Amino acid sequence: MVSAVAGRVSRSSAELAAGCGVLVLLGGLLALAVVDKGRRHESGYRLHASFAHIDGLSVGSDVRLAGVTVGQVVDERVDPSSFQAQVTFTVRPDVHLPTDSAAIITSDSLLGGKYVALSPGADNAMLKPGGAITETQGAISLEQLLSRFIFSVTDTMTKANQQRANQGAASQGTATPDNGQAPAGHTGGGDQP
Questions:
Q1: What distance, in Å, lies between the first and last C-alpha atoms of the chain?
Q2: pLDDT, averaged across the chain
Q3: How many other C-beta atoms are found inside a 10 Å radius of the C-beta of residue 107?
Q4: Where is the Mce/MlaD domain (predicted)?
Q5: N or C: which terminus of the chain carries fewer CB neighbours within 10 A?
């Protein structure tokens, strides 16, 4: 009986040790993933751009040229003097951008992540490492787009309803011209012949 109890204790200890080993291994993998995500895998040269809004853009977001990823965002901060968002990003060393290039924050889809889209200019001079793109357009939020759409639809419907009301009143002969007088042939006397 003593050997049976000792066998169970030995087996329980082995299972406990194996479980702890698995947990330590998973914890190590998680820590490695977090540390690796914090590192910046930079290749290429850095450029800067200022934006009024960068809603949804974050460090690690793509930088694309013609839909192809050519870099990534490595830093973002607020300029205390202009209150604009300063974005620093890398561009592959084989990509050379004219000085009049533009940077636009856009998204993959309606609810997708944001990225910086580069639009090359036509200038012969090229941006140097550490240079700044001055032609920028910030992110437009989904809320702003929906708000514009709703106000546009509301305004259109109000105008259409007003036109229908005016046409209905004119066809019944009850509309009055802008001079405030009754329409021709209407004496205002009610049902008199």
A1: 123
A2: 79
A3: 18
A4: 44-121
A5: C
CA 134/CA 125 separation, integer angstroms? 14
CB of 49 within 8 A of CB of 77?
A: no
Q: Which two tokens stand for residue 70?
A: 């050519």
Read off the pLDDT of residues 87-128 as tens digits, 9 standing for 90 and up: 999 999 999 999 999 999 988 877 778 899 999 999 999 999
Nearest to 119 by CA among 138, 97, 141: 97
For 70, the enclosing helix (H) or strand (E) is strand 68-78
Q: What is the Cα–Cα distance from 127 to 112, expressed in whole angstroms? A: 30
Which of 33-37, 130-134, 154-158, 187-191 shows the lowest per-residue confidence on average (mean pLDDT)? Answer: 187-191
C-alpha distance from residue 50 to each of 12, 97, 127 (Å): 61, 17, 15
**pTM of the predicted model, to two decimals?**
0.55
Residues in the chain: 193
Map residue 53 onto helix, strand or coil. Answer: coil
CA 193 to chain centre: 69
Distance of alpha carbon 87 from alpha carbon 114, whole angstroms: 13
Helix (H) or strand (E) holding 167: helix 142-171
The predicted structure's pLDDT at residue 185:
52
